[in-house]
Design a protein that fits this description.
Blueprint lengths: L4 H16 L4 H11 L4 E8 L5 E7 L5 H8 L6 H7 L6 E2 L6 H6 L1 H7 L8 E4 L5 E8 L8 H40 L3 E6 L4 E4 L1 H8 L3 E4 L2 E4 L2 H16 L4 H5 L2 E5 L5 E9 L8 E8 L8 H11 L3 H11 L7 H5 L3 H15 L4 H15 L19 H20 L1
Antiparallel strand pairs: 1-2, 1-5, 3-4, 4-5, 6-7, 6-12, 8-9, 10-11, 11-12
Helix pairs in contact: 1-2, 1-7, 11-12, 12-14, 15-16
Protein backbone atom coordinates (compact mmCIF):
# COMPACT_ATOMS: atom_id res chain seq x y z
CA UNK A 1 0.00 0.00 0.00
CA UNK A 2 1.59 3.27 -1.09
CA UNK A 3 0.49 6.18 1.12
CA UNK A 4 2.61 9.33 1.05
CA UNK A 5 3.30 11.63 3.98
CA UNK A 6 1.42 14.44 2.24
CA UNK A 7 -1.68 12.29 1.78
CA UNK A 8 -1.55 11.17 5.41
CA UNK A 9 -1.03 14.77 6.57
CA UNK A 10 -4.04 15.99 4.57
CA UNK A 11 -6.25 13.33 6.18
CA UNK A 12 -5.05 14.22 9.68
CA UNK A 13 -5.51 17.95 9.02
CA UNK A 14 -9.07 17.25 7.92
CA UNK A 15 -9.77 15.48 11.22
CA UNK A 16 -8.63 18.42 13.34
CA UNK A 17 -10.56 20.89 11.21
CA UNK A 18 -13.63 18.69 11.73
CA UNK A 19 -13.15 18.92 15.51
CA UNK A 20 -13.89 22.65 15.22
CA UNK A 21 -16.45 22.44 12.40
CA UNK A 22 -18.62 19.33 13.06
CA UNK A 23 -20.12 19.40 9.56
CA UNK A 24 -16.64 18.53 8.23
CA UNK A 25 -16.45 15.28 10.20
CA UNK A 26 -18.27 13.14 7.62
CA UNK A 27 -16.02 14.19 4.69
CA UNK A 28 -12.95 13.88 6.93
CA UNK A 29 -13.83 10.28 7.80
CA UNK A 30 -14.49 9.54 4.14
CA UNK A 31 -10.98 10.77 3.42
CA UNK A 32 -9.60 8.47 6.15
CA UNK A 33 -11.63 5.54 4.78
CA UNK A 34 -9.97 5.99 1.39
CA UNK A 35 -6.58 6.42 3.07
CA UNK A 36 -6.74 2.92 4.62
CA UNK A 37 -8.32 1.40 1.48
CA UNK A 38 -11.53 0.51 3.30
CA UNK A 39 -14.97 0.19 1.76
CA UNK A 40 -16.82 1.79 4.68
CA UNK A 41 -16.38 3.13 8.17
CA UNK A 42 -18.40 3.66 11.35
CA UNK A 43 -17.37 6.09 14.09
CA UNK A 44 -19.57 6.19 17.18
CA UNK A 45 -19.32 7.83 20.59
CA UNK A 46 -21.98 8.03 23.28
CA UNK A 47 -22.24 9.12 26.91
CA UNK A 48 -21.31 6.13 29.08
CA UNK A 49 -24.01 6.96 31.64
CA UNK A 50 -26.96 8.00 29.49
CA UNK A 51 -25.85 6.21 26.28
CA UNK A 52 -26.94 9.31 24.39
CA UNK A 53 -25.09 9.51 21.07
CA UNK A 54 -22.50 12.29 20.92
CA UNK A 55 -20.89 11.49 17.57
CA UNK A 56 -22.11 9.20 14.79
CA UNK A 57 -20.48 9.08 11.37
CA UNK A 58 -21.21 6.32 8.87
CA UNK A 59 -19.21 6.41 5.66
CA UNK A 60 -20.82 4.67 2.67
CA UNK A 61 -23.29 2.84 4.86
CA UNK A 62 -27.06 3.04 5.20
CA UNK A 63 -27.77 5.56 8.03
CA UNK A 64 -30.60 3.32 9.27
CA UNK A 65 -28.26 0.39 9.99
CA UNK A 66 -27.56 1.26 13.65
CA UNK A 67 -31.23 0.98 14.59
CA UNK A 68 -31.38 -2.67 13.54
CA UNK A 69 -28.03 -3.41 15.15
CA UNK A 70 -28.92 -1.92 18.54
CA UNK A 71 -32.35 -3.57 18.54
CA UNK A 72 -31.47 -7.10 17.45
CA UNK A 73 -27.71 -7.74 17.64
CA UNK A 74 -25.92 -5.54 20.18
CA UNK A 75 -26.56 -7.90 23.10
CA UNK A 76 -25.26 -10.85 21.01
CA UNK A 77 -22.14 -9.12 19.70
CA UNK A 78 -19.11 -10.95 21.13
CA UNK A 79 -16.78 -8.28 19.77
CA UNK A 80 -17.94 -5.55 22.17
CA UNK A 81 -16.23 -6.77 25.39
CA UNK A 82 -13.09 -7.58 23.40
CA UNK A 83 -12.95 -4.11 21.84
CA UNK A 84 -13.39 -2.26 25.11
CA UNK A 85 -10.98 -4.47 27.04
CA UNK A 86 -8.21 -4.08 24.45
CA UNK A 87 -5.30 -1.71 25.08
CA UNK A 88 -5.48 1.88 23.84
CA UNK A 89 -4.51 2.38 20.22
CA UNK A 90 -4.93 -1.27 19.24
CA UNK A 91 -6.88 -2.18 16.11
CA UNK A 92 -8.60 -5.56 16.54
CA UNK A 93 -8.87 -7.60 13.36
CA UNK A 94 -9.30 -11.19 12.31
CA UNK A 95 -8.82 -13.77 15.06
CA UNK A 96 -8.33 -11.09 17.74
CA UNK A 97 -11.82 -9.80 17.01
CA UNK A 98 -13.67 -13.05 16.32
CA UNK A 99 -12.70 -16.58 15.30
CA UNK A 100 -13.73 -18.18 12.02
CA UNK A 101 -16.02 -20.56 13.90
CA UNK A 102 -17.71 -17.65 15.71
CA UNK A 103 -18.30 -15.86 12.42
CA UNK A 104 -19.82 -18.94 10.77
CA UNK A 105 -22.28 -19.52 13.61
CA UNK A 106 -23.03 -15.87 14.40
CA UNK A 107 -26.40 -14.35 13.40
CA UNK A 108 -24.63 -10.98 13.52
CA UNK A 109 -22.30 -11.90 10.67
CA UNK A 110 -24.78 -13.98 8.65
CA UNK A 111 -27.88 -11.80 9.01
CA UNK A 112 -26.40 -8.34 9.45
CA UNK A 113 -22.78 -7.91 8.37
CA UNK A 114 -22.76 -9.88 5.09
CA UNK A 115 -26.09 -8.56 3.69
CA UNK A 116 -25.01 -4.97 4.45
CA UNK A 117 -21.57 -5.17 2.87
CA UNK A 118 -19.62 -5.46 6.12
CA UNK A 119 -17.21 -8.20 5.12
CA UNK A 120 -13.77 -8.05 6.71
CA UNK A 121 -14.21 -5.66 9.67
CA UNK A 122 -11.98 -4.09 12.31
CA UNK A 123 -12.76 -2.71 15.76
CA UNK A 124 -11.06 -0.32 18.18
CA UNK A 125 -11.97 1.64 21.29
CA UNK A 126 -11.09 5.34 21.27
CA UNK A 127 -10.80 5.59 25.08
CA UNK A 128 -12.44 9.02 25.30
CA UNK A 129 -13.17 9.93 28.94
CA UNK A 130 -16.83 9.64 29.92
CA UNK A 131 -17.73 8.14 26.53
CA UNK A 132 -18.23 4.70 25.03
CA UNK A 133 -16.53 5.33 21.70
CA UNK A 134 -15.43 2.94 18.99
CA UNK A 135 -14.22 2.90 15.41
CA UNK A 136 -14.59 0.22 12.76
CA UNK A 137 -13.62 -0.17 9.10
CA UNK A 138 -15.07 -2.65 6.62
CA UNK A 139 -13.22 -4.11 3.63
CA UNK A 140 -14.56 -4.51 0.12
CA UNK A 141 -16.26 -7.77 -0.81
CA UNK A 142 -13.87 -10.65 -1.47
CA UNK A 143 -11.06 -8.54 -0.05
CA UNK A 144 -9.38 -8.25 3.34
CA UNK A 145 -7.12 -5.83 5.16
CA UNK A 146 -3.43 -6.62 4.96
CA UNK A 147 -0.80 -5.83 7.59
CA UNK A 148 0.01 -2.44 6.01
CA UNK A 149 -3.62 -1.37 6.15
CA UNK A 150 -3.92 -2.33 9.83
CA UNK A 151 -0.69 -0.50 10.61
CA UNK A 152 -1.97 2.63 8.87
CA UNK A 153 -5.22 2.42 10.86
CA UNK A 154 -3.17 2.34 14.07
CA UNK A 155 -1.25 5.43 12.92
CA UNK A 156 -4.42 7.42 12.25
CA UNK A 157 -6.39 6.15 15.27
CA UNK A 158 -4.80 8.57 17.84
CA UNK A 159 -5.69 11.52 15.60
CA UNK A 160 -9.31 10.37 15.32
CA UNK A 161 -9.43 9.97 19.10
CA UNK A 162 -8.01 13.45 19.66
CA UNK A 163 -10.38 15.01 17.12
CA UNK A 164 -13.35 13.44 18.92
CA UNK A 165 -12.05 14.68 22.29
CA UNK A 166 -11.62 18.22 20.97
CA UNK A 167 -15.06 18.15 19.39
CA UNK A 168 -16.73 17.01 22.61
CA UNK A 169 -14.80 19.58 24.69
CA UNK A 170 -15.83 22.42 22.38
CA UNK A 171 -19.44 21.22 22.39
CA UNK A 172 -19.38 21.12 26.20
CA UNK A 173 -17.95 24.64 26.40
CA UNK A 174 -20.55 25.98 23.99
CA UNK A 175 -23.25 24.19 25.98
CA UNK A 176 -22.05 25.94 29.16
CA UNK A 177 -22.20 29.32 27.41
CA UNK A 178 -25.71 28.54 26.15
CA UNK A 179 -26.82 27.48 29.63
CA UNK A 180 -25.48 30.70 31.14
CA UNK A 181 -27.14 32.69 28.38
CA UNK A 182 -30.48 30.97 29.05
CA UNK A 183 -30.23 31.70 32.78
CA UNK A 184 -29.53 35.35 32.06
CA UNK A 185 -32.39 35.56 29.58
CA UNK A 186 -34.85 34.50 32.27
CA UNK A 187 -33.90 37.59 34.28
CA UNK A 188 -33.95 39.86 31.23
CA UNK A 189 -30.15 40.11 31.02
CA UNK A 190 -28.61 40.04 27.57
CA UNK A 191 -25.34 38.29 26.78
CA UNK A 192 -23.32 38.67 23.58
CA UNK A 193 -20.03 36.90 22.88
CA UNK A 194 -17.73 38.49 20.30
CA UNK A 195 -14.63 37.17 18.60
CA UNK A 196 -11.51 39.34 18.80
CA UNK A 197 -12.23 40.71 15.30
CA UNK A 198 -15.64 41.95 16.45
CA UNK A 199 -17.76 39.30 14.75
CA UNK A 200 -20.58 37.74 16.74
CA UNK A 201 -19.97 34.33 18.26
CA UNK A 202 -23.09 33.92 20.44
CA UNK A 203 -26.19 35.84 21.52
CA UNK A 204 -28.83 34.74 24.03
CA UNK A 205 -32.56 35.26 23.71
CA UNK A 206 -32.58 38.53 25.68
CA UNK A 207 -29.88 39.92 23.38
CA UNK A 208 -31.93 38.92 20.36
CA UNK A 209 -34.84 40.95 21.78
CA UNK A 210 -32.59 44.01 22.09
CA UNK A 211 -31.49 43.48 18.49
CA UNK A 212 -35.13 43.40 17.38
CA UNK A 213 -35.76 46.57 19.41
CA UNK A 214 -32.74 48.15 17.63
CA UNK A 215 -30.97 48.89 20.91
CA UNK A 216 -28.22 46.73 19.44
CA UNK A 217 -27.83 46.55 15.66
CA UNK A 218 -26.09 43.89 13.62
CA UNK A 219 -24.17 45.12 10.58
CA UNK A 220 -22.43 42.38 8.59
CA UNK A 221 -22.50 40.17 11.65
CA UNK A 222 -20.84 42.84 13.77
CA UNK A 223 -22.29 44.49 16.84
CA UNK A 224 -23.08 48.20 16.81
CA UNK A 225 -24.75 50.18 19.59
CA UNK A 226 -27.12 53.06 19.02
CA UNK A 227 -24.56 55.46 20.51
CA UNK A 228 -21.22 56.41 18.99
CA UNK A 229 -19.45 56.75 22.36
CA UNK A 230 -20.28 53.14 23.23
CA UNK A 231 -19.05 52.00 19.82
CA UNK A 232 -15.80 53.83 20.52
CA UNK A 233 -15.55 52.18 23.94
CA UNK A 234 -16.18 48.78 22.36
CA UNK A 235 -13.52 49.39 19.70
CA UNK A 236 -10.96 50.24 22.38
CA UNK A 237 -11.65 47.12 24.43
CA UNK A 238 -11.60 44.90 21.33
CA UNK A 239 -8.26 46.37 20.30
CA UNK A 240 -6.88 45.57 23.76
CA UNK A 241 -8.20 42.01 23.47
CA UNK A 242 -6.68 41.56 20.01
CA UNK A 243 -3.30 42.92 21.06
CA UNK A 244 -3.30 41.14 24.43
CA UNK A 245 -2.63 44.49 26.12
CA UNK A 246 -5.29 44.60 28.82
CA UNK A 247 -4.31 47.04 31.54
CA UNK A 248 -5.96 48.17 34.76
CA UNK A 249 -7.06 51.34 32.94
CA UNK A 250 -9.28 49.28 30.69
CA UNK A 251 -11.08 47.92 33.74
CA UNK A 252 -12.38 51.28 34.86
CA UNK A 253 -13.48 52.20 31.35
CA UNK A 254 -15.25 48.95 30.52
CA UNK A 255 -18.79 49.80 31.65
CA UNK A 256 -21.39 52.39 30.73
CA UNK A 257 -25.09 53.11 30.57
CA UNK A 258 -27.32 53.45 27.53
CA UNK A 259 -31.00 54.26 27.17
CA UNK A 260 -33.37 52.53 24.78
CA UNK A 261 -36.13 54.17 22.74
CA UNK A 262 -38.63 53.68 25.58
CA UNK A 263 -36.39 55.56 28.03
CA UNK A 264 -35.30 52.41 29.86
CA UNK A 265 -31.75 52.52 31.23
CA UNK A 266 -29.55 49.54 30.39
CA UNK A 267 -26.20 48.86 32.02
CA UNK A 268 -23.43 47.72 29.68
CA UNK A 269 -20.40 45.75 30.85
CA UNK A 270 -17.50 44.57 28.66
CA UNK A 271 -15.78 41.47 30.03
CA UNK A 272 -12.78 40.05 28.11
CA UNK A 273 -12.23 36.30 28.10
CA UNK A 274 -8.53 35.86 27.45
CA UNK A 275 -7.18 32.93 25.46
CA UNK A 276 -3.77 31.32 25.76
CA UNK A 277 -0.93 33.73 24.93
CA UNK A 278 -3.40 36.14 23.38
CA UNK A 279 -4.86 33.57 20.96
CA UNK A 280 -8.59 32.81 20.66
CA UNK A 281 -9.57 35.62 23.03
CA UNK A 282 -13.21 36.68 23.20
CA UNK A 283 -15.18 39.60 24.53
CA UNK A 284 -18.46 39.16 26.38
CA UNK A 285 -20.92 42.03 26.53
CA UNK A 286 -23.55 42.03 29.25
CA UNK A 287 -26.56 44.32 28.96
CA UNK A 288 -28.64 44.62 32.11
CA UNK A 289 -31.98 46.50 32.22
CA UNK A 290 -31.64 48.44 35.46
CA UNK A 291 -35.38 48.67 36.05
CA UNK A 292 -35.41 44.88 36.49
CA UNK A 293 -32.70 44.93 39.13
CA UNK A 294 -33.50 44.96 42.82
CA UNK A 295 -32.65 48.03 44.90
CA UNK A 296 -29.15 47.95 46.42
CA UNK A 297 -28.97 46.00 49.65
CA UNK A 298 -27.27 47.23 52.83
CA UNK A 299 -23.86 45.84 51.92
CA UNK A 300 -23.99 47.36 48.43
CA UNK A 301 -24.98 50.73 49.87
CA UNK A 302 -22.05 50.60 52.29
CA UNK A 303 -19.70 49.79 49.39
CA UNK A 304 -21.13 52.70 47.41
CA UNK A 305 -20.80 54.99 50.42
CA UNK A 306 -17.17 54.01 50.92
CA UNK A 307 -16.37 55.02 47.35
CA UNK A 308 -17.53 58.58 48.05
CA UNK A 309 -16.87 58.88 51.76
CA UNK A 310 -20.50 58.99 52.90
CA UNK A 311 -21.15 59.06 56.65
CA UNK A 312 -23.53 56.56 58.32
CA UNK A 313 -26.19 59.28 58.56
CA UNK A 314 -25.82 60.12 54.88
CA UNK A 315 -25.98 56.41 54.01
CA UNK A 316 -29.23 56.14 55.97
CA UNK A 317 -30.73 58.93 53.88
CA UNK A 318 -29.54 57.27 50.68
CA UNK A 319 -31.11 53.98 51.79
CA UNK A 320 -34.48 55.68 52.23
CA UNK A 321 -34.27 57.13 48.71
CA UNK A 322 -33.33 53.84 47.02
CA UNK A 323 -36.37 51.99 48.40
CA UNK A 324 -38.71 54.83 47.39
CA UNK A 325 -39.74 56.01 50.87
CA UNK A 326 -40.57 59.60 51.79
CA UNK A 327 -37.83 61.51 53.60
CA UNK A 328 -40.45 63.29 55.72
CA UNK A 329 -41.03 60.04 57.60
CA UNK A 330 -37.31 59.45 58.01
CA UNK A 331 -36.66 62.42 60.32
CA UNK A 332 -39.12 61.36 63.10
CA UNK A 333 -37.89 57.75 62.84
CA UNK A 334 -34.33 58.90 63.56
CA UNK A 335 -35.50 61.50 66.05
CA UNK A 336 -33.80 64.34 64.18
CA UNK A 337 -35.04 67.55 62.62
CA UNK A 338 -36.20 67.57 59.02
CA UNK A 339 -33.55 70.19 58.21
CA UNK A 340 -30.86 67.79 59.42
CA UNK A 341 -32.09 65.17 56.98
CA UNK A 342 -32.08 67.75 54.18
CA UNK A 343 -28.48 68.65 55.08
CA UNK A 344 -27.45 65.00 54.89
CA UNK A 345 -29.14 64.70 51.51
CA UNK A 346 -27.27 67.78 50.24
CA UNK A 347 -24.00 66.23 51.39
CA UNK A 348 -24.81 63.06 49.42
CA UNK A 349 -25.41 65.16 46.29
CA UNK A 350 -22.19 67.11 46.76
CA UNK A 351 -19.99 64.05 47.37
CA UNK A 352 -21.35 61.97 44.49
CA UNK A 353 -21.80 64.75 41.95
CA UNK A 354 -25.49 63.96 41.47
CA UNK A 355 -27.98 66.82 41.37
CA UNK A 356 -31.31 65.06 42.00
CA UNK A 357 -32.69 62.17 44.06
CA UNK A 358 -33.53 60.30 40.86
CA UNK A 359 -29.96 60.48 39.64
CA UNK A 360 -28.45 59.34 42.92
CA UNK A 361 -30.82 56.33 42.95
CA UNK A 362 -29.81 55.44 39.40
CA UNK A 363 -26.13 55.83 40.26
CA UNK A 364 -26.28 53.63 43.35
CA UNK A 365 -28.33 50.98 41.52
CA UNK A 366 -25.91 51.05 38.59
CA UNK A 367 -22.95 50.69 40.93
CA UNK A 368 -24.50 47.68 42.67
CA UNK A 369 -25.05 45.98 39.32
CA UNK A 370 -21.53 46.57 38.08
CA UNK A 371 -19.78 45.80 41.36
CA UNK A 372 -20.84 42.20 40.75
CA UNK A 373 -18.56 42.20 37.72
CA UNK A 374 -15.95 44.66 38.92
CA UNK A 375 -13.42 41.94 39.61
CA UNK A 376 -12.88 41.83 35.83
CA UNK A 377 -12.71 38.04 35.64
CA UNK A 378 -10.68 36.66 32.73
CA UNK A 379 -10.42 33.06 31.59
CA UNK A 380 -6.66 33.03 31.12
CA UNK A 381 -3.75 30.67 30.90
CA UNK A 382 -2.58 29.62 34.40
CA UNK A 383 0.79 31.29 33.82
CA UNK A 384 -0.83 34.66 33.13
CA UNK A 385 -0.39 37.19 35.93
CA UNK A 386 -3.81 38.20 37.31
CA UNK A 387 -4.99 41.72 36.62
CA UNK A 388 -5.13 43.91 39.70
CA UNK A 389 -7.59 46.59 40.71
CA UNK A 390 -7.32 49.49 43.08
CA UNK A 391 -10.11 51.30 44.95
CA UNK A 392 -9.51 54.25 42.64
CA UNK A 393 -10.52 52.06 39.68
CA UNK A 394 -13.93 51.53 41.28
CA UNK A 395 -14.31 55.26 41.93
CA UNK A 396 -13.53 56.06 38.30
CA UNK A 397 -15.91 53.30 37.21
CA UNK A 398 -18.84 54.63 39.22
CA UNK A 399 -18.04 58.26 38.43
CA UNK A 400 -18.18 57.35 34.74
CA UNK A 401 -21.60 55.78 35.28
CA UNK A 402 -22.85 58.88 37.05
CA UNK A 403 -21.49 61.17 34.34
CA UNK A 404 -23.23 59.19 31.60
CA UNK A 405 -26.39 58.91 33.67
CA UNK A 406 -26.51 62.68 34.19
CA UNK A 407 -26.14 63.22 30.46
CA UNK A 408 -28.98 60.80 29.72
CA UNK A 409 -31.44 62.10 32.29
CA UNK A 410 -30.80 65.77 31.44
CA UNK A 411 -31.39 65.21 27.72
Amino acid sequence: MGVGIEQFGDAVRGLYEAAIEPELLAPAMEWVTDLVSASNCCLHSGDERTLKTSVMVMTRLDPSLPRGYYKDYLSKDLRIPRIFSASAGRILHGQSLSTAEERRSSPLYNEYFEPNGLHDVTGASLFVGGELSCLGFGARKDDSFDADAIKLMQFVLPHIRQAVRLHLSLQSAFGAVSELGDLWSRTGRALLLLNADGTLNYVNEAAERLIREKVVRIVYKRRVFNRSDLDGLLAGVLEAVRCDELEVGHVSQSCALLVDYAGRQIGVRFLPILGVDGRDSRLSIMLIPLDAEAAPNKVELIQFGMLFGLTPAELAVLGVLTVGEDLRGHAPARNVAHETVRKHLKNVFDKTGCRTARRICCASSSASVFCAFASFHCVAHPSRRPLTRSPQDDVVCVERLICINNTITSS
